[in-house]
Write a structure and sequence with these properties.
The complex is a heterodimer. By secondary structure, chain A is an all-alpha fold. In chain A, 72% of the residues lie in helices and 0% in strands. Helices cover 70% and strands 0% of the residues of chain B.
Chain lengths: 321, 294
């Protein structure tokens, strides 16, 4: 750092009248000192693992360490694309993400619109408080709530099914039910919390628009379709585009706490696959390669999606940066 | 407001109320069902169906949970993790965010980019694990609190808030000769209380709920945190290993393994359910802060 500083400092020093970099930095010395511990932690714990990513191209050997392990080129990536379980994890990830996008995404918007029609403020507040709650509960707890509700022998859901003459379903071990359960439980957990951003957008709508519509005799539904929906469309589009950037992460904590070998065919995603191959089977290099593939595709998606978000937003100001 | 609702409008509003009421029931019922199960006697715990109430509530299951030294110890471990982790993380985040808010400081842009980049790309699970191993902090609390101590998201939220503070206070302190550290400590921190509260709660909830790092980094049973023990008991059926001898299910005990599991879930969830309504507004406030982008 200091070497680079003086070098650049000398370069600028050749231009007259302009302060050298060192001179410009000096008043901020205390601030650099304050920056140091946090930056050091980021460099170690975020960039350290990026240094470790090289083992995706090596044959990692614990005794030899990351640096000294021999290079093997793209071998692990070829293996990734020819291993059935790995490609299955890739397709599952994309399918589960797509399902969540289609079914979970509109729900918070719907809830925000409905909450907006609730005139009783106390009722509204209680409803919001209750609907945010699951967001703060860990997936381990949610998984055990689901185990209890969906249990084929004592669960409430199966009891109702039997009441109507159906036969009990073992939802969490049933291949045709596992993905719907993922989508529904995701909605259940996040619908309230995700609606916060839309409620914020709703509160920013100019009330005179509604008053004018009322004078013109518009019904509530017409007001929603003509005023409320168009007003929150921009934020909804941005949220949609941003969540498309996350397609490679289908929700590790959720799947990891709900799945079992019976449903690997439909539920095993890239992250859970990496966990089993890496930390259970200890194929460090191979699982790092799978993880790197996921991260790189994710990076490309996020960057692309941000460019699109910027193009679409009226003031070219949307997106992460 | 003018009363303008037609009959169809009224019907629509009624539908909205019904929708929201249903959502409240659907959200809350799973917790209630498990709560009732946890206080049900054996005869009712084994019966299928909706659990709205129980005729003979018993706290037997809770007694066996509180008699388990391992569960109590994991609760304690989690508490230590939350307190230490939150203090370290909040302090460092606030300390780092302040220099980041000085946009005309040389290298500010570069450092900000280094931090923001971690939001969109990471080394991933395995290299992260190997790093902890190579740093020799495996099986220590550092493995749980150092890697997540400073995160890009919290830094940006806090930096944006600090940037929005009125500059006049800081300027007059500068004229009086106060150092940056004094300004940070005496002026910026007190003014940042709302954002500090929000970020603190986020960090604390994350530490309370996070199980994965503890699961892969902590090898001694005595160091397990509550979520790790929960996972083992609830999802890997290791209940027997965590209960003291004598309360293991024999088929005649007043509680069943299911009621005991329910009691464990309640013990770990009730703190959140009780505290949460009072601090909820800080969380939502934070989302608004987050909407102001970097």
């Amino acid at each position: 750092m200091s070497a680079a500083t003086t070098k650049r400092g000398m370069k600028t020093a050749q231009k007259p009248r302009k302060k050298t970099l060192a001179q410009r930095m000096k008043p901020y010395a205390a601030l650099y000192l304050m920056l140091l511990p946090g930056l050091a932690l980021i460099l170690i714990f975020c960039y350290g693992p990026m240094y470790g990513l090289q083992i995706a191209f090596k044959d990692y050997n614990i005794g030899m360490g990351i640096w000294n392990s021999p290079w093997v080129g793209m071998e692990h990536f070829q293996k990734f694309l020819t291993t059935d379980a790995a490609t299955r994890a890739l397709t599952n990830t994309i399918i589960i993400s797509a399902l969540k996008l289609v079914f979970s995404f509109p729900m918070p918007i719907l809830l925000a619109l409905v909450l907006n029609e609730i005139g009783n403020q106390a009722f509204k507040r209680v409803a919001q408080t209750i609907s945010y709650l699951p967001h703060f509960i860990s997936w381990i707890i949610v998984a055990s709530l689901l185990n209890n509700l969906l249990s084929p022998s004592t669960g409430a859901v199966n009891a109702i099914i039997q009441q109507f003459g159906g036969s009990p379903i073992y939802f969490l071990a049933d291949k045709s039910w596992f993905r719907p359960i993922l989508v529904i439980s995701n909605i259940w957990k996040e619908i309230g919390w995700s609606s916060v951003v839309y409620l914020a957008a709703l509160s920013g709508i100019d009330p005179s628009l509604y008053e004018a519509a009322i004078v013109d005799g518009a019904t509530r539904v017409q007001r929603i379709v003509r005023i409320t929906l168009p007003s929150i469309m921009p934020i909804a589009v941005i949220m949609l585009i941003l969540s498309m950037g996350n397609i490679m992460s289908a929700g590790f904590d959720q799947v990891f706490n709900l799945y079992s070998p019976q449903v690997y065919d439909v539920g095993d995603i890239l992250d859970t696959y990496v966990y089993r191959r890496g930390l259970v089977d200890m194929s460090y290099s191979f699982s790092t390669a799978v993880g790197l593939f996921k991260s790189v595709v994710g990076l490309i998606l996020v960057v692309t999606v941000n460019v699109i978000a910027k193009r679409l937003s009226p003031d070219h100001d949307a997106g992460l940066w | 407001m003018i009363k303008t609702d037609t009959k169809r409008d009224t019907a629509f509003v009624v539908c909205c109320y019904i929708f929201v009421a249903l959502l409240m029931v659907v959200t809350f019922y799973p917790f209630w069902d498990l709560f009732i199960l946890s206080i049900s006697p054996r005869s009712e715990a084994l019966k299928p169906g909706l659990r709205l109430f129980t005729s003979a509530p018993t706290l037997e299951a809770y007694r066996s949970v509180f008699e388990s030294n391992e569960i109590i110890r994991s609760f304690w471990n989690s508490l230590v993790r939350v307190v230490l982790g939150t203090a370290l993380s909040l302090g460092l985040t606030a300390l780092t965010a302040y220099p980041l808010s000085k946009r005309d400081m040389p290298f500010n842009k570069g450092v900000t980019f280094i931090i923001l980049f971690t939001m969109i790309f990471s080394g991933g699970m395995i290299p992260g694990y190997l790093l902890i191993k190579d740093l020799h902090i495996m099986n220590t609390i550092w493995a749980l609190i150092l890697p997540s101590a400073v995160t890009a998201y919290n830094l940006i939220i806090m930096r944006n808030f600090i940037e929005g503070l009125p500059p006049s206070l800081e300027e007059s302190a500068r004229i009086d000769g106060a150092s940056y550290f004094t300004i940070w400590y005496k002026i910026v921190l007190p003014l940042s209380k709302p954002v500090l509260a929000t970020v603190m709660l986020w960090i604390a909830v994350a530490h309370w709920n996070n199980y994965f790092d503890a699961m892969i980094y902590m090898h001694d049973r005595s160091k397990f945190t509550l979520p790790v023990v929960l996972r083992r008991i609830l999802l890997e059926n290791e209940l027997d290993k965590y209960l003291p001898a004598g309360v293991v299910d024999t088929g005649t005990a007043p509680q069943t393994p299911e009621t005991t599991k329910g009691a464990i879930v309640m013990v770990s969830t009730i703190p959140i359910i009780c505290v949460y309504p009072f601090i909820q507004k800080y969380f939502t406030k934070g989302v608004m802060l987050g909407a102001v982008k970097g």
